[in-house]
Amino acid sequence: MIEILDTTLRDGTQGEAVSLSVDDKVAIARRLAAFGIPLIEGGWPGSNPKDAEFFARMKGVDLGGSRLVAFGSTRRKGMRPEDDPSVTALLEAETPVVTVVAKSWDFHVTEALEVSLEENLRMIEETYRYLVGRGRRVIHDAEHFFDGYKANPAYAMATLEAAVRGGADTLCLCDTNGGSLPEEVHEITRRVREAFPQVVIGIHPHNDAELAVANALAAVRAGATHVQGTINGYGERCGNLNLTSAIPNLMLKCGLPLVGLDREKLRELRELSHFVDERANLTPNLRAPYVGDAAFAHKGGIHVSAVLKDPRTYEHVPPEAVGNTRRILVSDLSGRSNLLAKLAEAGVEVPKEMTGVLLKEVKQLEHAGYAFEGAEASFFLLAHRLKGGQMPFSLEGFTVFVHVNDADPETPTWAEATVRVRVGETLQHTAAESQYGPVSALDKAFRKAIEPFYPEIAEIELSDYKVRILSGQEAGTASGVRVMIEMHRGKERWSTVGASKNNLEASLKALADGYAYPLVKNQPVFR
Predict the structure, then answer these.
(1) Per residue in 73-115, pLDDT tens?
(2) E strands along 347-425, which residues?
(3) Helices H, strands E: what count in the chain?
(4) Percentages (nearest 5) of helix, strand, coil residues in the chain
(5) For the whole model, what pTM was predicted?
């Protein structure tokens, strides 16, 4: 059985742009436990008030079969463990398991820690004996172990011997600089496994050489049964081992059983990944293996045709196994198979003879700057219009004025927009102002025109707005632009696209599709 230790709440928070409040850490710990992670490393209680508060709050939290782990370091030189505040903080956290980091590389011992090689061994053994004597399971994090072994194998092994003498039951070998190769990790782990058959051997790889997952698998093949990493690969520099990749690899590829996890739990992997990203206020990685939106996305027409016949042609595992879904993208690379699959997904019925017309229209619009693969709502409306479907309104024109008072810098710049929108037989001509620019003014004027007919528009909010300059023969201010907009109403989200030589026209096209989509989709009169 492979035991997973998640260190998202400790090592993961050392990554750039990763910041978690105490509430975030509590919520993530609960979610990791619900997923089935057996060991959850919560932080370093002796290093900062936030982690001390986290462990204090977690004392009353039931994590089911999961166990909370406190992280710390060996005693300081010249000090007894019971007199070292960082060691006593581990006991005060009241976790059944503690992870203690210790130096394995002689270079680090003398240069960074500034103690003798012998003193470092005593620090390890005495700290562990003290913690084990007070009922704690001790996991020895052998920092820089692979670099240390390559520099001085005898001393690196001596640090492990000191850990075992002190009572550590797990020796976790850390590739702290993330530069070891899989063959090195395999061979060194094999030697450690042979030398210490009585204890658990673990692996803690970093991803600086893009080899963390490969190194974890190499260590497991060599006998490691304890694996440390983070959700989404959060961590210092290039990150830690990404558990959202390692866990399915271990289960689905290697066929290994994992403590606390099964195939049903694995179906929650994508949701767990996105939950952690949301708590960290980070955008999910589109191309993340297994859990990313693009992980099972198919764009080329030949690929899509094959996948629809048998997904195994272009998918290494079923997306459902990790809680993901297959996505068929529509673009200028699409074939009829893409369109038919996407139309079926959207619930749009188009006669077969119309698919050729729709495909031609998609290719022409993409040549003009549109991109439908990220704007499914606009594709839905395009198909709806081409088959003769009724639209809730039509845009007939707009004007925009931007007011700037150069003589008085204190006077804010503001924009005024008017739009002409036809709803049935009624022509609405409305105006609005905004201090946030012309697109905001257009949005307000557009809402003002259609809300009297469709009050539900008031519930729709703009989530994201992106402008991209399109490369072509013309450059600079004469370039065409593509505008991508995301809207939401409650938990329902949809994206639209507009393209034009004029930024405001492209924006209004995307806005119009954004408001039309939920009306056409949800009201039978338009279907």
Answers:
(1) 999 998 999 999 999 999 999 999 999 999 999 999 999 889 9
(2) 394-403, 414-423
(3) 18, 16
(4) 45, 20, 35
(5) 0.78
Structure tokens at 303: 């690929």
483 pLDDT exceeds 50? yes
Amino acid at 374: G
Predicted confidence (pLDDT) at residue 525 exceeds the cutoff of 70: no
β-bridge partners, 481: 469, 500
Residue 282 has pLDDT above 70, yes or no: yes
Helix (H) or strand (E) holding 406: none
Question: How far are the Cα atoms of 30, 136, 232, 293, 466 from residue 283, in angstroms, in the given order?
Answer: 21, 38, 11, 12, 15
Do 26 and 57 touch, CB atoms closer than 8 A? yes
CB atoms within 10 A of CB 482: 21
What are the backbone angles phi and psi of residue 470, rounded to the nearest 5°?
-95, 130
For 110, other C-beta atoms within 10 Å of its C-beta total 14
Contact 498, 519 (CB under 8 A): no
Q: Mutual orientation of helices 182-195 and 212-221 as an angle, nearest 10°?
A: 30
DSSP string, 420-476: EEEETTEEEEEEEEETT-HHHHHHHHHHHHHTTT-GGGGG-EEEEEEEEEEPSSS-G
Q: Among 284, 364, 293, 302, which residue's Cα sits nearest to residue 331?
A: 364
Q: Whole-angstrom Cα distance, residue 368 to residue 299?
A: 19
Query: Comparing 16-20, 350-354, 464-468, which segment has the lowest mean pLDDT?
Result: 350-354
**How far from chain centre, in Å, is Cα 504?**
33
481 SS3 class: strand
User: Cα(453)–Cα(282) distance, rounded to whole angstroms?
Assistant: 38
CA distances from 405 to 167, 399, 400, 408, 431 (A): 75, 20, 17, 6, 21
| H helices present in 100-152, as ranges | 106-108, 117-133, 145-151
- b/e code 185-211 from CB counts within 10 Å (16+ = b): bbebbbebbeebeebbbbbbbbbbbeb
Domains of the chain by start residue, with CATH: 3-279 (3.20.20.70), 297-350 (4.10.430), 394-526 (3.30.160.270)
What is the pLDDT of the chain when averaged over all its residues?
92
* Alpha-carbon span 103 to 90, nearest angstrom: 18
Q: List all residues 6 or more positions away from 58 whose beta carbon is below 8 Å from its beta carbon.
A: 26, 29, 42, 68
Specify burial of residue 353 (Cβ count, 10 A radius: 0-12, 13-18, 19+): exposed
Token pair recorded at residue 223: 């006998």
pLDDT tier at 426, thresholds 50, 70, 90: very high
- Asked whether the predicted pLDDT for residue 332 surpasses 60, the reply is no
pLDDT category, 141, cuts 50, 70, 90? Answer: very high
Q: How far is CA 168 from CA 36, 97, 129, in A?
A: 24, 11, 8
Q: Tell me what pLDDT residue 527 has.
A: 44
Helix (H, G, I), strand (E, B) or coil at 98: strand
CA 167 – CA 17 distance, rounded (Å): 37
